[in-house]
Amino acid sequence: MEGDLAHIGAGLAAIGSGAAAIGVGNVAGNFLAGALRNPSAAASQTATLFIGIAFAEALGIFAFLVALLLMFAV
Amino acid sequence: MASEATGAEEGGLVFHPMDQFIIKPLFGGGDIAWYTPTNATLWMALSILAVVALLVLGSSKRAIVPGRSQSIAELSYGFIYKMVEDICGKDGAKYFPYIMTLFMFIVVANFLALIPMSFSPTSHFAVTAVMALAVFFAVTILGFVKNGTAFLGLFWVSSAPLALRPILAIIELISYFVRPVSHSIRLAGNIMAGHAVIKVFAGFAAIAVLSPVSVLAIVAMYGLEVLVSFIQAYVFTILTCVYLKDALHPSH
User: Fold this and answer.
1) Do B124 and B189 form a contact (C-beta atoms < 8 A)?
2) Secondary structure (3-state) at B66
3) What is the rounded distance in angstroms from the CA atom of residue B51 to the CA atom of residue B233?
4) How far is B167 from chain A (nearest CA, A)?
5) Are B187 and B123 in contact (CB under 8 A)?
6) Residue A47 to chain B, least CA–CA distance (Å)
7) Which residues of A touch B185 (CB under 8 A)?
8) Separation of alpha carbons B192 and B110, rounded Å
9) Domains plus CATH for chain A?
10) With helix as H, strand as E and coil as C, how does chain A read?
11) Phi, psi at residue B54, to the nearest 5°?
12) For site-directed labelling of B51, which of B3, B5, B109, B199 has its Cα 20 to 30 A away?
């Protein structure tokens, strides 16, 4: 199995997915903590929850994109 | 790309996980021109047909007690209408048809892509970038038409201290122009990553020792993908609503 520096870079870019996982977990965990304190207000905030998750996740997807570019375009 | 696609023996996989995203002509081989019917064309057409069938046939009977297809049609209509009204307010409701179209196309294309051996048009950046750029230009033009130069107040955060405002304006400007990029890449990236992961596990199924684990993993990932398909369509739609709200009410 041969490989070059681009493959190492793609592997390093995969660390970004883990960072995005921390971010998404933070958003969802804090939402749950708040929702358990005030369950009546939770239902109205699910849209905000998904927007927050989407923003956190987008940066992980950017890392995935960098990995893809290194694998197939470089 | 070609060398990776044939590299079955070096990676240990029977097929390459990214092969499923290759666009092929439907009839014969040859080059792909803009008018060539490809598998992407086929599955986009199928998803539009499915949306039309669901909404037109579902609402054609107008039963007092709705049947299954009528329930789904009414539920999706009510779901999107409530989302638009909650985020954009009453005056955003007239842009509801566009947002409903976006949502139905994305969610049905995502679900159809989960059929084995099918093709996922939303996993291509070309498809999602067109949708995101359409939203971006529509929202920007709408903002200037509705508010005139007051739309630029979106970048001038009047609640911040005066010294900070130019710096914030630059940041807001950058984040405004990155919107179509992140908007399109989020959808395509999620769908592409999910399908690639399923294919990677499917490749492991050829190895006898790993095959029970990989079949279980495919089932689990498939369940997750059903969820992701819906959530990403929802997120795309809700972000469109948020951008539309910014255009209609640009004050911070």
Assistant:
1) no
2) coil
3) 14
4) 22
5) no
6) 8
7) 58, 61-62, 65
8) 11
9) 2-73 (1.20.20.10)
10) CCCCHHHHHHHHHCHHHHHHHHHHHHHHHHHHHHHHHCHHHHHHHHHHHHHHHHHHHHHHHHHHHHHHHHHHHC
11) -65, -50
12) B199
Distance in angstroms (rounded) separating the CA atoms of residues A65 and B128: 14
Length reported for chain B: 252
Q: Which amino acid is at B144?
A: F
**Three-state SS sequence of A26-41:** HHHHHHHHHHHHCHHH
Q: Which residues contact B103 (CB under 8 A, 6 or more apart)?
A: B76, B80, B233, B234, B236, B237
DSSP characters for B106-157? HHHHHHHTTSTT---GGGSHHHHHHHHHHHHHHHHHHHHHHHGGGGGGGTS-
Q: How far apart are CA B182 and CA A35, in angstroms?
A: 28
For the stretch B192-227, pLDDT in tens is 988 988 888 888 887 778 888 889 989 998 998 998
- Would you give the distance in Å from CA B105 to the centre of its chain? 8
Query: How many C-beta neighbours within 10 Å does residue B106 have?
Result: 26
List pLDDT tens digits, range B85-144: 988 888 888 999 999 999 999 999 999 999 988 899 999 999 999 999 999 999 999 999
Q: Which of A1, A51, A62 sits opposite B239 (nearest CB)?
A: A51
Write the CA distances from B180 to B108, B175, B185, B203, B239, integer angstroms: 22, 10, 8, 34, 11
- List chain B residues with CB under 8 Å of A50: 231, 234-235, 238
- Residue B194 CA to residue A50 CA, distance in Å, equals 19
Cβ within 8 Å, pair A51-B235: yes
Q: Whose CA is closest to B188, among B243, B235, B134?
A: B235
B242 touches chain A (CB under 8 A): yes
Is A18 exposed, middle or buried (CB count within 10 Å of its CB: 0-12, 13-18, 19+)? exposed
Per-residue pLDDT, B3: 41
Amino acid identity of residue B211, one-letter, is S
